[in-house]
Amino acid sequence: MNSPLSSIHEASMSILETLGVRIHHPELLEMLSDRGIRRDGDTLFFTRTQVESLIASAPSEIRLHAANPAYDMVLGGDRTYYGAGYGCPSILDGEGVRRSATFEDYLTFLKLVESSPAFCLNGGVLVQPSDITPEHSFPLMLRAAILHSEKCLMGMPGHGREVEILMEMMAIARGGKEALEAKPQILTLVNATSPLQFDSIALETMEVCARYRQPVIISPGPIAGATGPVTLAGNLALGNAEALAGVAITQLLREGTPVVYGLQATTADMATGGVSIGSPGFSLEAMTTARLAKRYGLPCRGGGAGTDACCVNAQSGYESMMSLMVSRREKVNLMLHSAGILDAYGAMSVEKFITDLEVISMVEYLEGGYETATDDLAVSVIEQGVEGVPFLAHPHTLKNCRTTPWIPSVSWRGPLKGRTGKEVFDDRIDAARDRLLSAYKPPHHEPNRQNQLDTFLESLGIPVGHTAG
């Protein structure tokens, strides 16, 4: 491990040993203390040996099972997967007009994600709908994801019983509790509260996921200069300590619980105090967290197509490309927020989602490199070109022209023909969106699956109502 990573690791070990982590849950605090972790009040202190031992008990790879095995994901090693935006309460349209997200928006993003070959993962909090009862929103969103997707699924955090309801829904959808526990099938993200705290929602989510043997992403999000030190090294040392503590807690709850190292350290805009995810500082932190996770032998989540822009524009393009390129080059296993995010996690945008798919396509092409077989080197073709045979009409070009070059979906290379560049660009975004929505096909489900889910929800007083679409 090189010197910067060693320095951050050593600082994190010191933080866990001397400052500890506050646990805002008396019962779990007692249980964790009983399992050998030193306690002082509501704070737990981890020794280096404890941290290293507990991390070693976590799986280095996680196979997440989809309804359709073609979309199974194996998190770990150098494999890379993309995930759409997560957690936004608002929608920003193509003109930069903001409104509250609705359940219809959630369904739209479910369909866009399902139709896009860029993703093996769907669901979660693609947006937070404002038009359904808050305490019913997560079960209704998971119901929609189960019925609209055959890809791997994201879950949602909550208090213990709230997460249990989601697990019971997954058991109904996937053949019973034993079948669910036998295979990781829903991935849930929990956040630490910086600096050095875990609240009851995070802890109870971790406990339920561990009980059901479902994977959890431990995702601290210290903001350099706001909820963490302004220096990147200090912010990373803090976030790494929080991530390692979270991983350790999952293993204390149940040894072998599948867990993802998900540190998402960000930076602050020093002019406003707000979070910034479009800065090169954010990308530097994403690079470092990927390397730390691989040093610990843990699957990692990080990066994405982050931007601080409030509309699709040049800023959203160059910031997202920087962030996504760094994430992909560092082989981050799961890049959430890879499509749709605007305004530093403040809003989702269909237009940004479509342009991010273009960025993903470009990055994948770039990372795929090129071949050097005889046909690729094409010496005989060059010889014929020297003799006057035009390359454009050569059989070698005709054979490879649809597979070798990168072909854009949204980007425009031709003349504008009296139109503005924005008009052409917007029309191509709309056309790409319409193609994805038209291509969406509801997955096949076993008979009565929807009835079973609806009966279960109604028994809890959760009406499906207008969310049945």
Commentary on this structure:
The chain is an alpha/beta fold and about 475 residues long. Helix content is about 45%, strand content about 10%. Strand 2 and strand 3 (about 45) form a beta hairpin. Helix 4 runs parallel beside helix 5 (about 135-150), helix 4 crosses helix 16 and helix 6 runs parallel beside helix 8.
Write a concise keyword list for the protein shown above.
469 residues; alpha/beta; TIM Barrel; 3 domains; five-stranded parallel sheet; four-stranded mixed sheet; 20 strands; 12% strand; globular; MttB-like_sf
Present the secondary structure layout.
Blueprint: H1 3-18, E1 21-23, H2 26-34, E2 38-40, E3 43-45, H3 48-56, E4 62-64, E5 73-75, E6 81-82, E7 90-92, E8 98-100, H4 103-115, E9 121-123, H5 134-148, E10 152-154, H6 160-173, H7 177-182, E11 186-190, E12 197-198, H8 200-211, E13 216-218, E14 223-224, H9 232-253, E15 259-261, E16 266-268, E17 275-276, H10 280-296, H11 314-329, E18 334-335, E19 341-342, E20 347-348, H12 350-368, H13 374-377, H14 379-386, H15 395-400, H16 421-439, H17 449-459
Helix pairs in contact: 1-9, 3-9, 4-5, 4-16, 5-6, 5-17, 6-8, 8-9, 10-11, 11-12, 12-16
